[in-house]
Design brief:
The chain has helices at about 5-30, 40-60, 70-75, 80-100, 115-140, 145-150, 150-165, 220-225, 240-250; strands spanning about 180-185, 190-195, 205, 215-220, 235-240. By secondary structure, it is an alpha+beta fold. It has a five-stranded mixed beta sheet. The longest helix is centred in the middle third of the chain and has 25 residues, at about 115-140. It starts with 6 loop residues before the first helix and ends in a 6-residue tail after the last helix.
């Protein structure tokens, strides 16, 4: 799952999406519900992302005593939760910018880039998706890709991370009794992926490799948000049941 984006591309996306999350959270109010994550209110969302920023920075620094529960407790005790969030965002940006290119740190996806590049990519996409959650809270509904304005190249990179990294880990619920093939094609960037589904672990190949039972198309941004279950803008050709199967079974969670 290599990335074609640069470190600076990911850091720019991380900064932009962190600012988007904070501003949308302020607009929505901390007690507002999050339509794209119904179990959360905005305070829960901000706390989660602020905790992840702190954990990722600590992992890259090699801190042995980082404690996610302690980060959550910090958030609960903060007099200004959004300021607390900003501090964590700046810390992970600074850590990513200053870490050695060969820093040793945990990564958790197969065929991942080196840790510094892995975490720049991962935090860019995690914060982008949770920024969308904050926008959803401010709107009171799921947003459209046009409302978010994600760069096509970043969206394609995020689709690639999801399809070649996350869903192929063998830990999810996306399975079919009979083998079938799903193609995902971004109309604006030209990227495509072939996803082979069965009762075995998922296999994703970059590009078009064989006829498909279903094709998901749209702009890269539409596909990115829809595949992360943050928008509903897929165009489906073929077996429409695969779109419902995806929405019901693809849920990436912190663990």
């Amino acid at each position: 799952m290599p990335t074609h984006l640069s470190l600076d591309d990911h850091l720019t996306a991380l900064r932009r999406s962190g600012d988007l999350l904070r501003d949308a959270a302020a607009s929505a109010g901390l007690d507002a519900t999050v339509p794209t994550c119904p179990a959360w209110n905005v305070a829960d969302l901000v706390t989660h992302q602020g905790m992840v920023h702190r954990w990722a920075a600590a992992n890259l620094r090699g801190d042995r005593d980082s404690d996610t529960d302690a980060f959550v407790a910090e958030a609960a005790a903060a007099s200004d939760l959004l300021a607390w969030f900003d501090e964590g965002l700046q810390a992970v940006l600074d850590t990513l910018a200053s870490a050695p290119e060969d820093v040793a740190a945990l990564v958790f996806l197969r065929d991942a880039p080196p840790p510094r590049r892995f975490w720049a990519r991962r935090q860019a996409h995690e914060t982008t998706i949770h920024g969308v959650d904050a926008v959803a809270a401010s709107l009171g509904r799921w947003p459209t890709a046009d409302r978010i304005g994600i760069e096509p190249a970043l969206a394609a990179d995020g689709i690639d991370e999801l399809l070649t990294g996350f869903i192929t880990r063998g830990k999810g619920k996306l399975h079919t009794e009979q083998p079938c093939t799903l193609v995902v094609r971004a109309e604006d960037t030209g990227h495509a992926w072939t996803v082979q589904l069965s009762d075995a672990p998922i296999v994703t190949t970059v590009g078009l490799t064989e006829p498909a039972d279903a094709v998901f198309t749209g702009s890269a941004a539409q596909l990115y948000l829809s595949l992360w279950n943050r928008a509903d803008e897929l165009t489906v050709v073929g077996d429409a049941g695969l779109a419902k199967l995806w929405r019901d079974n693809v849920h990436v969670r912190w663990s």
